[in-house]
Predict the 3D structure of the following.
Amino acid sequence: MNHPTFELEGAAGTIRRWLAEADRILITAGAGLSAAAGYDYGDEDRFHELFPALHRLGLRSRYLVGVPLPPDLRWGYWAVHIDDIRFSPTPNPLYQRLRALVGDKDHWVMTSNVDGLFARNGFAPDRIFTPQGDYGRYQCATPCTPAVWDSEPLVARLLAAYDPVSGAVTDPDALPRCPNCGGEVEINVRVGPEFIESPYLPAGRRLQDWLGTAPSGTRLLILELGAGFNTPGVIRWPGEHLTRRLPHARLVRINPSHPETPTDLAGRTLPVAADARHLLDALTVPHSAPQPTVAP
């Protein structure tokens, strides 16, 4: 792996040049990008603020997949969590700065994040591939049907019956059931083999077409932000494979903990040992702006 001595200003200068030289940009992103934008699933203080009842039970973060909870607590958690991270109308400055950085360059997004933050902050929804799902949908847990449903009305119904003191949904009739078979439902995100991926496949095919039909010699820049080793086969390794396959591709890997890049791609990769917020600060703050003239 290639992990040279890191200097933020030098990296920012290289990225500016590579952005200017690129014909196309592929943004790839993992959980580290949303964490840098203020949605850190490991943030214990924020967890305590949003879920005091669960905190009293000894839970400390939003990484609750696999934790057995009774349905009233489980759906209380999902309602508050999804409302906070998926349906908040507040624009996110970090994602907006990233969108401004790309500008009018031909670009696509591929992300393991399921929070909808790209589409909610200026990126074209039809150019975003989310192979891990979307908090904006739910599905039958079995599943009895390949159909999925909009989760926003479900979340609103759950929140109307939610008691923040107990952390529970107090009205059993508000707990969701499959509209088709009446069985249990799950949020439409990739956890196990029951995950329904059909809503996301068309975007994946369009992305493959975009990559596969690029003219010979197209200079592709892959900006990878916050993708570590939780699910490296979704974002991290495909970016490396794409860089190997396309001789004019370059890869920028922005990750404070694991910025390493393969040695066989030396010269076409840039490891950046910083989070997205600090890098965007370096890219967008005019460090060398001329000083104003002061009249005598």
Observations:
- The chain has ten helices and eleven strands.
- The chain has one domain: 2-284.
- The domain at 2-284 is CATH 3.40.50.1220 (Rossmann fold).
- Residues 71-85 form the longest helix (15 residues).
